[in-house]
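Inputs:
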Amino acid sequence: MRNLDAADGLSRRLAAFLRNASWEDVPQTVRAHATRAVFNGVGTALGGACDQAILRLDEALAPFSANQAATVIGRRARRDALTAAFLNAAAMNVFDFDDTHAGTILHPTAPIAPVVLALAETQPISGSQLLHAFVLGVEVACRIGAAVSPGHYDRGWHITSTCGIFGAAAAAAKLLDLNEDQIVWALGNASAQASGLVETLGFMAKSTGVGNAARGGLVSALMARAGVQGPPRPLEGPRGFLAVCCGAPDPERIERKLGVEWEIQRLMFKPYPCGVVLNPVIDACLAARTAPAFSVNGIAEVMVRGNPLLKARADRPNVATGREAQVSAQHAIAVCLLRGTAGAADFNDAAVNDMQVRALRAKVRRVEGDETTPIEAARVSILYADGSSHDQSIEAATGSLARPMTDEALRQKFAALARYGCPDLDAEPLAAKLWDLANVADADAVMALARP
Amino acid sequence: MRNLDAADGLSRRLAAFLRNASWEDVPQTVRAHATRAVFNGVGTALGGACDQAILRLDEALAPFSANQAATVIGRRARRDALTAAFLNAAAMNVFDFDDTHAGTILHPTAPIAPVVLALAETQPISGSQLLHAFVLGVEVACRIGAAVSPGHYDRGWHITSTCGIFGAAAAAAKLLDLNEDQIVWALGNASAQASGLVETLGFMAKSTGVGNAARGGLVSALMARAGVQGPPRPLEGPRGFLAVCCGAPDPERIERKLGVEWEIQRLMFKPYPCGVVLNPVIDACLAARTAPAFSVNGIAEVMVRGNPLLKARADRPNVATGREAQVSAQHAIAVCLLRGTAGAADFNDAAVNDMQVRALRAKVRRVEGDETTPIEAARVSILYADGSSHDQSIEAATGSLARPMTDEALRQKFAALARYGCPDLDAEPLAAKLWDLANVADADAVMALARP
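Outputs:
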């Protein structure tokens, strides 16, 4: 590919950037958003800590955990760093409640934050060192993601896993103080393990891919430290990641304004535990409920119109599990109109089988896509049995770049997730410590507060 | 893809086949070839046991090994089953001296045999149970490989790793006695981890991919046993492995004559520790040496003509490491004409830097590809300084389907590899036990003999 020929040396330049990057060069706004991302990620891990997928993955992996060096967020039992990184990544992402990078729809915190948190428990690092490695990892994952978008995801690659592993490897490489050669090798070892299929979304095996991205990234850096050499061009080589995993990669996207514009600033936080395409739909339902004439019992039919992705990803009238509900517009509309809430308890197995939700779900007749509607917008139309109707439009969903979640809303989300997933944990000190992470001398202190 | 629509139910039917398969249905010739494959695989692992790549991978992984349940072939220290499966797979393949499946160029024993050998140390199974699971794993890996060939490898996927993980998962699923649902989940968890790039060939990171295929396959089955559910169509789904990893998959190839014709019978064993395209080249050099007029000192120039793949994969005049030498026609010609041998010691770092080899390597002026030459054929032309010349043609290389290695040659290869990689091990009892594997009551006995 001609554009790959032009990218010769890309992997090495990226390694040099990572090697030479300094916390002093990271602007305050970037630091603050990184803090929000880790805060939000630990919150979603608390919420997912006891999900069946995570418990079952732990059942399979625990017999192969070598020690108790690292915390599984929200759990008493500890695991070795690789296993903890796997489980925490899976837990952060299991409800699809973690962050989203605008443009790639990559969820970078899940594969990356667990790696730097696990390393904080095995070597002394400060909160700012942790945040810096995290910021760099997010840059690597999101920039590689942008270079292979949109073809990569469209083809069927779960971009969070496939590109996340490079971010995880980069973040680990920074904390392990690898030299330039070793960083290239870390990326090479990651390239040999990069994986994850969209086919697994909606099933527990999605978590297998996400967990593996975190574990694989960390082990790639550890292998590089031990001298396991990789190819010189793992990204831009003729049979490297970009060429193999994308029909028309744009490698220049990886280096454009690197260290000047920060991808982490394009991270959006989700107000609701489900696919990002559902955010404006839920906003619309919660707003519609406040209309004076609203009556859930009078509803005859509901339809929704949104971006074509809404139809492609979330036109799912029949759902059997909480996981499927997370990507079902029909379920989201029914549960939100009925309950006026959109939390973890509204997208679990019990909510799916709630008789009232099921009845209302059957009344959601049409999910329509429309090329002119942006992804953060949607219109919900309610038709009542008496012939009246109500339309509710949302232009910019809560959590979109145009209407970001406030810090206060993030705190409330964190507290609600902790209550849902870890009722035994006093989450308040953990929240305070995370919010102050840039000033924490020993980042290990965070994880000590994440165990009940 | 239309041909994938026609394959609906493929994953489940494959799972049913695996669940219901019985050793009694496996013909004697298939059993014998499976025994040869495991024998040859353990031999190549002995040879690679102390290669730098394996030592470094072990350095990175050993701190995360939970126990000493499983043998690392040729080593005293034991590791947990996942780590041992990783290291043994990497060691079997590190010299490219393991077996090759005709048609796909997949090396199935490396990702699969280590899994069944590790399970033999953690649960009681007989030699025939081990061989049966191995045979089934090879079927799954090679049939999936055939379904995505040739586009998959051409695109840059290292098929041994990407398809090997499904074979490893299938073999483990059989020994773990998983039910049909669980086998589909095991394939789904494998699909979330399937990876490996051709870009890594010639570098230690190739071993990362191969090791990961074995480890990932085993952990996929263990996850399925723990209830980690996967998608119902991990192979044939619209965003499943076949659609994502191949432009024009032939899913029908997976089921055609399943249980009737056995892919394992298309496994070829390598007489020389290097890329399979070099086999006829080496045969030609060893034969040329026996000509009365042969004189290594008189050689002015050498050229070789073979299949286009010879040129594509092995036209490599400048080599710096043993790994690169394994895919260098120039090196193979030089070392074989000079020494008259083609063993592990002829394709290591020392051989690459041997001054006499370097001098002769520089005289190999041309490596040519020719569409009409089959992959198992080649012609080496030697031009002497006195103007005379000698041409040596090989029609069917040693180790090809048309001219398979004899059992006696396999025994000699095994013994030579053991001497090379594990001089402290008495390899004779191990060889005898492996040769009799189908009749061994407790397969654990094999691995007990594989430690010095």
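Remarks. Chain A has two domains: 2-269+407-448, 276-394. Chain A is about 50% helix and 10% strand.
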